[in-house]
Automatic annotation (TrEMBL):
Taxonomic placement: Bacteria, Bacillati, Actinomycetota, Actinomycetes, Pseudonocardiales
Domain STAS as annotated: residue spans: 25-115
A Gene Ontology molecular function term of the record: anti-sigma factor antagonist activity
Signal peptide: none
Name this protein carries in UniProt: STAS domain-containing protein
């Protein structure tokens, strides 16, 4: 058995990054859990502008802490749009009925356009 190098460990833990634009896009990858959710919340709070897109396309695990962070972000910013594709992310959002509260889109392009 080998050990993970820093790059592999970073991928396993995930990341949150801001992509400049109008609206700004926050790209999340890996597990959106207790470790990553506070990072997402900090970046949402620091990102200027009314409209914001949170791209969960590369999320491979969505924990309750991640869903709570999305709800708080949505309550702070009514113009928050979430990109969610695939069962790993969509299913928890559907089970908790957060798809009824959040503006969920299948692609970043559609979320940016708002349709």
């Amino acid at each position: 058995m080998g050990t993970m190098d820093d790059e592999e460990r970073g991928r396993a833990q995930g990341s949150v990054e801001l992509v400049a634009g109008d609206p700004a896009v926050i790209r999340v990858s890996g597990a959106l859990d207790l470790v990553l959710a506070p990072e997402l919340e900090r970046l949402v709070a620091r990102t200027p502008g009314e409209r914001l897109v949170v791209d969960l396309t590369d999320v491979d695990f969505l924990a309750s802490a991640g869903m709570s962070a999305l709800v708080r972000a949505h309550r702070e910013r009514q113009a928050l749009r979430v990109v969610a594709t695939g069962r790993v992310v969509l299913r928890p959002l559907e089970i908790t009925r957060l798809v009824d509260e959040l503006d969920v889109y299948p692609t970043v392009a559609e979320a940016v356009a708002g349709r």
